[in-house]
Amino acid sequence: MTPPEDLRSNAVWQHDHDHILHPWTNFGPFEAAGSLVVERGEGVWLWDAGGRRYLDAVGGLWCTNIGLGRPEMARAIAAQVERLTFTNTFVDMTNPPSAMLAARLAELAPGDLNRVHFTTCGSTAVDTALRMVAFVQRSLGHPDKTGIVARRLSYHGSTHFGQSVSHRPGDRVPEFRYETRGIHHISAPHLYRAPAGMDAAAFCDHLVAEFEALIAREGAETIGAFIAEPIQASGGVVIPPEGYLPRMAELCRRHGILVIFDEVVTAFGRLGQWFASGPETGVVPDMVTVAKGLTSGYLPLGAVIFSDRLWQAMADNPERWFTSGYTYSGHPVACAAALANLEIIAREGLLENAARMGALFAERLEGLRDLPTVGDVRARGLMACVENVADKTTRALLADEIDIGKRISDACEARGLLVRPMAHLNVMSPALIVTEEMIDEIVTTLHAAIREVTDDLVREGVRIG
Question: Which phi and psi (to 5°) does residue 148 adopt?
């Protein structure tokens, strides 16, 4: 979307345009239009440099769980900066916020997930977990169990290892190289795109059989871990059929394959629970990766939360060194922010609000199914996706060059709503403080934007339906 003239003449817009390489830069559109300059945020609202207000239904990037601009968070961060700005946590040093946060995470996490390794973000948390697989398996006497099984449509971060394990088609570009040895991809549990004639139960059987066949083909002795988002977020809010995750986890246990749940998006309230692991999925994995909602985006922080069993396996030889970590692992200011954030979520009942508003969001979004281009609507908690198609019967997609997701997000933006475009998808993840009135505004605005874009496409001669 071409920004208004008052933004294009803004010095910040110009400096950004002339100097910054953004994550996932699309060079042609960026060169032409530059960036939306966001100057201020409060709660779920953002204001651009021209003073226009937007309801942020993206939640930053799945992360602004408690909302923006909270004075309590500013005070907690400032107090920690004055008390202890930084100390490293390598080898045998620590600081109070880091230790207290680790204890709080162990308290909140299900089962025996009592050990914590802090990282800088979700990508580094996943990268650490994936590398920990080889360390653990070797410690257990299985040095060849280093392979990783992931799913198509998955997103596990932007490190080299994380991108290699991820499998969203749009993320694979020919200019980069990706690891392939020992990395295996199986089908996403995407019921809307299941083989024709398969109901949810049959599709679940099909997915489990596919994993069993992979294990038989590659050999269980070569496979170290299975990594899965409980709900595939950036892949399009792909919600697995009932029983899928417990059955996949049972298969892993049978073959000595570690289970990693990537909860960078789903943890800390997005689904109305502290974690999807445990109550939401019926599975306590061996490792959980977290970030985003851990601090609600106030400061960068990630973590791997793992079981006592894995700790014991690694620690049974006192001569071992775990040679992985980051300068800012356990950063005291970031950990202080996380502690304050978790306290706000608990005190204000935001898990319960996310559950209530999530159910309402799903109900209201169902009304979009009547629109000609809306093939599917998927929602769980405060995660939602609208899948746009050319034909509802065949589920065929519109041509890539139409870029319908971006056209819809531009139409929303013009109406004061931010939704996230991903090719033919529009994804939403509003803050946990969202209200019924805000839910209605999101759905009403999105409905109008989709209708406008559909009418424009028909006028352009694009066949719909």
Answer: -120, 130
